[in-house]
Amino acid sequence: MTYGDWTAAWWQFYFQIPNVNNSHPFVATADNTCNNGNQPAGPVFFLAGVSLQSPQPQVVRNCTVPAGSPILFPIANQEWSNLELQNFSGADLRAALLQLVPLPTNAKKALPKFSDLKVSLDGVNIDFLSEFHFQSPAFFFTAPSQIKYFIFYSGIDSTNGPAISVSDGYWIAIKPLPVGQHTLSFSASLPGIVNINMLYHLNVQ
Questions:
Q1: Are 50 and 178 within 8 A, CB to CB?
Q2: Which of 26, 49, 137, 171 is most open to solvent, judged by the fewest CB atoms within 10 Å of its CB?
């Protein structure tokens, strides 16, 4: 699988997790557990960030990572699917659907504005983050009914069957870490719109 393929798998994994009492990894800020549901059987361990509309204290989580597993996470990302088009009809719907060909055009709109991309692993900064800009191929997902917790899906009916989407973002893949304790932090901002500030305590075993 390519880098882009793995980013699509990341979205598919997180979209199938229901949001119970704001526990989904995309929104949970109070609970410091990993909240990762059941990780896929594949070799890559996924982590997620919380996008907040204003600067907030760092979101801290504790995760147990299987030894030998690479880790994939986005510093900042965006996806665009046909679910956002459900409120269109007639000629407007046709015009909106044309925006999905190719889908990546829309997924990329927000990304150039992100600033202050930062990643640190065990106190060592990872540089040249703009080089880690990857786009997914189009992918299908079936959204849980609780998808309305996403601020950009507010009021959208997600029960109309599978959706098609594409993603664009800044992604980091980390080689398997040695057994033991590690710290991973990452942050990004879209001034006045999105702020991401995460700290993961990773227990590799």
A1: no
A2: 137
Classified as helix, coil or strand, 83 is: helix
61-102: per-residue pLDDT in tens?
A: 999 999 999 999 999 988 877 776 555 444 444 454 445 444
- Provide the 3-class DSSP secondary structure of residue 64: strand
Residue 131 is given by DSSP the state G
Q: Are strands 163-174 and 139-141 parallel, antiparallel or unpaired?
A: antiparallel
Total-model pTM: 0.82
Ordered strands of the 180-190 beta sheet: 59-65, 194-204, 180-190, 115-121, 124-125
C-alpha–C-alpha distance, residues 7 and 4, integer Å? 5
Domain residue extents for the chain: 3-204
Return d(Cα 23, Cα 198) in angstroms, integer: 16
Sign of the dihedral defined by the CA atoms of residues 108, 171, 10, 2, in that order: positive
